[in-house]
Amino acid sequence: MTRYRIDPALLLLWTQVARAGNLHVAAEGLFLTQPAISHRLKQLQERAGEPLYRRARHGIVPTPLGLRLAKMGEKIELALEEAEHLCQSTEGLLRGSVRILASNSNAELLLPGALARFRNAHPGIHLRLTTSNSRQARLHRDEADLVFVEDDLPEPREARWVQECLLSTRIVLLLPAQHSLAATPGPIQLQDLQESTLIWRESGSGIREAVLQAFRELGLFPEIRFELNGLAAIRDGVRAGLGLAFVSATQSSEPSPGLITRELSPRIPHRLAVLYRDPLDRASETLLQHIREAIPALVSSE
To answer: Can you give the pTM of this predicted structure?
Structure first.
């Protein structure tokens, strides 16, 4: 039996329909009739051999196969977008695209200001940022040009991959200003927190893994009861009295009413690093240089 390649246009169409979650809404956005949309999706469905979606009260819900095909369509969209930027050329204007994958701490600390300044200086470069945790960022590094992580894992062994430490700091304890430990002289001993209620970052977080490793080296295994994503949620949880938490010393330099930080003993290093393939393209190298230049201001704020 002759097998034909799937028409990429059908995948792109399905991706937009799946994103809209409604055939009528998708048809309006694509300036097509709903029957035309349905006819083309039927072609793709026949090629796939099983349904792409099921109907729901307010639209459609993709099947597992439909979701996978929609993800493939998104990759085609990204490739076309990058091709468009690559083909554009304006004399004297740096152009291109940079795909960025960053751990949450990097996204909260290193990147916002640097990306904003870079975008103003180089409007011809398209930036695409996805946040994750350090473990997932390393796992999916092939999907990005610059990968920002926050741990002490050894450099990748794959040829051409480079790991560069951007910022070396430490992890501190975040607690309410009125907490009994706030008045304790000297650093807080990690073993004294064994019985405290602790708020942890999400699984895979570099901060979480570093603190757990420090506990393990002391022969301690603290209970993990509360897990929150992002620094804002951690601060809100501590402020509300949910428990104590661990943050980067650089992050703790930002004013936060009602909260203070205390040094820990033993000291727990926290390093922010970037992974990239060597050599970098011009757009990625220019962005990375912007980020390197922003580091001294972060260090001086501690």
So the answer is: 0.65
